[in-house]
Amino acid sequence: MHISILTFDGFNDLDSLVALGMLNRIALLGDTDWRVRIASPTARVTSMNGLTIDAHEDLSQLAKADAVLIGSGMKTREVANTPALMEQLHGIDPTRQLLAAQCSGTYLLGRLGLLGGTPACTDLTSKPWVVESGVDVVPRAFAARGNVATAGGCLASQYLVAWLIARLKDVDAAREVLHYFAPVGEKQEFIDRALAHVLPTLEPAHVAD
Amino acid sequence: MHISILTFDGFNDLDSLVALGMLNRIALLGDTDWRVRIASPTARVTSMNGLTIDAHEDLSQLAKADAVLIGSGMKTREVANTPALMEQLHGIDPTRQLLAAQCSGTYLLGRLGLLGGTPACTDLTSKPWVVESGVDVVPRAFAARGNVATAGGCLASQYLVAWLIARLKDVDAAREVLHYFAPVGEKQEFIDRALAHVLPTLEPAHVAD
Description:
The structure is a homodimer. Chain A has helices spanning 13-23, 25-28, 76-80, 83-89, 105-111, 127-132, 157-168, 171-181, 187-198, and strands spanning 2-6, 35-39, 44-46, 52-54, 67-70, 98-102, 142-145, 148-151. By secondary structure, chain A is α/β, with parallel strands linked by helices. Chain A has one domain (2-206): 3-Layer(aba) Sandwich (Rossmann fold).
């Protein structure tokens, strides 16, 4: 399983890296087929908080991934207005991949025509221009329909992660990962809060228990 | 204000980088005196999830920081058993700095003799060997006494962040940062949950409202 986390220069650290750490827990638990990768147009990108990271792969890998998570950042509209970048995103396809977008990442999904009028989430700062672009923004932390999910607010990242793991593995794996990252003494309520978002969006086949 | 986030090779991405992103919000909001820095013994470090980042500063800066946050990772015991590394940590001092430790970072605080018998938090995986080292581990997400705070569970990071901002700025600033990062539609309960941990540990002088 190959999950690409699309990360541009000026990226929001939490929106790409909470997902990286949480999703990769499945690999650390022993799934040798599970690969989580930061995908960027350049070999190194620097966050909005001045953190420079090495990307794991370039954008040519996106179309081959089982899931693509679109991170957020300060330059999302710049990306959307750069044809050379947008061309590299045209290979992503919700009929054969899971697509997840965090905060301003929702804007890119909309600009790529991949939301299809479905209600979507974004953060409060991005909301005005995401709405203006024609996306039906709902005032919630998480929304999913079919193979596309969106989240609003950096620390709604865990809801996108839980959805991705529930869809790519199963709900028990999502529960295990949420348990690991949750604050001590608050684990059950943390898991319950995330699954209350995710479970209603799953088909019966994804919910083993 | 200078906050160093101590980050070693094999680091836990969330434990250093959620704090970096959240703490640096104060700088992005316009405080030009607010600097948040990844402090590492080498110029580049790689996380337990295979993310390579550039450090902002080396360990010689720790003693000069206003606050030091000790991150967590897979090599904490190795660090504690490497005198050349531990020597570089001896300059940190809770009589003139705020000290915060996340998960296995609590072990380093204990080994440095900086917990002074105070109850402390860590994650469930680290707990057995943190207890064995003599630390009084409590089954909670957050604990603070005086200038030292500890947190258990990666996503208790926001409680350490709220404490640091409440102490270095004020409670209103902590509230504003929590609001920004909270999931949409869940912001008030998110803020309340964090402040329920932090407020009881503050002196009246830190609580303007």
